[in-house]
Amino acid sequence: MLSAFARAFRTPDLRRKLLFTIAIMAIFRVGSFIPTPGVDYANVQQCIASQGQNDLLGMVNLFSGGALLQLSIFALGIMPYITASIIVQLLRVVIPHFEALHKEGQSGTAKLTQYTRYLTIALAILQSTTVITTARSGFLFPNCPVEVIPNDSFMTSALMVITMTAGTGLIMWLGELISERGVGNGMSLLIFTSIAASFPTALWSIAGGANGAVNFTIMIAVIILVIGLVVFVEQSQRRVPVQYAKRMVGRKMYGGSSTYIPIKINMSGVIPVIFASSLLAVPGLIAQFGDATAGWVQWVSKYLADPASPIHISIYVLLIVFFCFFYTAITFNPDEVADNMKKYGGFIPGIRAGRPTAEYLDYVITRITSAGAIYLALVALIPTLVLVLLGVSTNIPFGGSSILIVVGVGLETVKQIDSQLQQRHYEGFLR
């Protein structure tokens, strides 16, 4: 693999793309440490040392590469764009115009991308206002004795909102630059950069505690095991065979070919884990605004906000399974696939075209999604459960799903580099 990297850098065009991608990722990391105007950077560092963040802020901080708690110009990270993309995709189910744009091809996709950008800016304004209000009220750093935003004037707040929103727009533009002129998917690589940047600190904190060497070794072994599981499952797919009948168009014969429909075990990716974690983090966030001595606040903190609680784990698994089926049902429509196959003379051997084909595809999808949901729940829970068993208080950000994102993005990027090497008659990464 290292020799393949060397050959990639010896190819002028591919070397230029790789260096451009690395430069954009470096700019993204540098921006994560530039404080927003109006923030006292020294007080922020003091608060980070004494803070106790909730799961929801921890998730957003993960996707911002630690920039959220730094209150930097990139504090919101890529999260507004991810949220906007998911919302636009879900709106295709309820808004016929969005579904029509999706079916129009490249022009319709460009229009949906434009809507996503507008929604990203709107969400950035909303989220930046929320972050600033949370920081000023003291809920961002509950145990901090100093103020992170000394000046509470309207002009200072407006400048901070504009700066954070502009930072989100810049991140979105950087991601699109990578997709256009670099290697890989830009947004995915920026997420990869954010998550990978938080790994060394989390692992080093495990090594520095009691029984640090043993815990660190066990955690590394678990991470390697989860990486192997993710690579194995993400590369796996069920291939449904499809046969196309021969047909005459003018004087030419078309069709008569055999192909297949590739169905991944985990079609929904990491989206179910994001949704499940976000929903489970909301009760803990609400409880922070209540009286600490109240019964419902104590119950929420003990059973819903604690990752080691059996109730928290059970609800977490159920939410992951639910969102796996929900998101797969949105992204894969068996009726539409069956109609397209019938239109072009395709059929599954042994299955009649039309409604029987749709029912068969739905049956296959249900079985595969069941296995995918179990796999996703295991990946999300294994690192957290191991840390609980080891008695380590420090948690790897976002559990095993962060490993899922890092490995998935890495695999896709390697495949793109490999395909470009193959086009230039070089031996690629995959042998």
From TrEMBL:
Its main location: membrane. Pfam families: SecY (PF00344). The keyword Zinc does not apply. Keywords: Cell membrane, Membrane, Protein transport, Translocation, Transmembrane, Transmembrane helix, Transport. It comes from the Bacteria. One of its GO terms (biological process) is intracellular protein transmembrane transport. It is a multi-pass membrane protein. InterPro entries: SecY (IPR026593), SecY/SEC61-alpha (IPR002208), SecY_CS (IPR030659), SecY_dom_sf (IPR023201). It is found in: Cell membrane; Membrane. The keyword Transport applies. One of its GO terms (cellular component) is plasma membrane. The chain crosses the membrane at residues 67-94, 115-134, 154-175, 187-207, 213-233, 310-332, 373-390. Gene3D superfamilies: SecY subunit domain. The central subunit of the protein translocation channel SecYEG. Consists of two halves formed by TMs 1-5 and 6-10. These two domains form a lateral gate at the front which open onto the bilayer between TMs 2 and 7, and are clamped together by SecE at the back. The channel is closed by both a pore ring composed of hydrophobic SecY resides and a short helix (helix 2A) on the extracellular side of the membrane which forms a plug. The plug probably moves laterally to allow the channel to open. The ring and the pore may move independently. Belongs to the SecY/SEC61-alpha family. NCBIfam families: 3a0501s007. Component of the Sec protein translocase complex. Heterotrimer consisting of SecY, SecE and SecG subunits. The heterotrimers can form oligomers, although 1 heterotrimer is thought to be able to translocate proteins. Interacts with the ribosome. Interacts with SecDF, and other proteins may be involved. Interacts with SecA. This is Protein translocase subunit SecY. It comes from Oerskovia enterophila. The lineage of its organism: Bacteria, Bacillati, Actinomycetota, Actinomycetes, Micrococcales.
